[in-house]
Amino acid sequence: MLSVKHLKKKFGKINVLKDISFDVEKGDILAIVGPSGSGKSTLLRCLNMLEVPTSGKIIFEGVNLTSKDANLPLVREKMGMVFQQFNLFDHLTVMENLTLAPIKLKVMGEGNAKRKAIELLKMIDLYDKMDSYPSSLSGGQKQRIAIIRTLMMEPDIILFDEPTSALDPLMVGEVLDLIKRLANSNKTMIIVSHEINFVRNIASKVLFLDEGKVQFYGSNKEFFTSKNKYIKEFLDKVNN
């Protein structure tokens, strides 16, 4: 489904990503972990070309996204993105936030979009908020709305950029629970996360970045039982 080959990213003279390669198959839940500043969010943003790689290839469903001929708007309809800061439109109601993109991009008609939105709002127990504005919602509610807004486009893969980092600790659980439900429904996901226990419980694969390099890429079990000194040092720090 997704193949990253020798990806590099520089900001000026700073090498942020150094020769990154990995694959994601349909149904995979890949967690990207590593110390702060290791390039995790930059890598995620490169995957849908919000950041343009310096070199390398990103092949998604047979399309080379780094090619000048790639239709990026069309690709992004199938590659959903959930940001740290929600990115809801404050002047629109929850219902309007959910239905704007699928109607405007003609993914579905207005009637079907509203029915889909109601179905998803009921799934996350926020049906009563459909006429509310984002300013009246808690951080956890905003992030859950942002997640189902991504689901409205029926993407083939969802990218999560530290989806709980902007939340009060009391709200983290409700967002992680929703992501677990998506995982159980066989959604393909790539998740940048610092919630290591969550990664342990949900990820099928782990990619460990340190200093812009892949120090590990493999199964969840292999990662958490690894003798690699970089991994052991990292896990010791985050578990203390």
Describe this structure in words.
This protein has 240 residues and is of the alpha/beta class. It has a single domain (2-89, 154-239), classed as Rossmann fold, CATH 3.40.50.300. It is 39% helix and 25% strand. It has nine helices and ten strands. The strands form two sheets. It has a six-stranded mixed β-sheet, sandwiched between helices. The radius of gyration is 18 Å and the shape is globular.
Please work out how many helical segments DSSP would assign. 9
Helicity level: 25-40%
Count of DSSP strands: 10
Give the uncertain stretches in residue-range form: none
Mean pLDDT: 91
Structural class by sheet pairing and helices? alpha/beta
Count of folded domains: 1
Q: In CATH terms, what is the architecture? A: 3-Layer(aba) Sandwich
Distance between the termini: 36 Å
Shape: globular
CATH superfamily: P-loop containing nucleotide triphosphate hydrolases
Largest sheet: 6 strands, mixed
Task: Spell the H/E element sequence.
Answer: EEEHEEHEHHHEHEHEEHH
Q: In which order are the strands of the major sheet placed?
A: 6-7-8-3-9-10
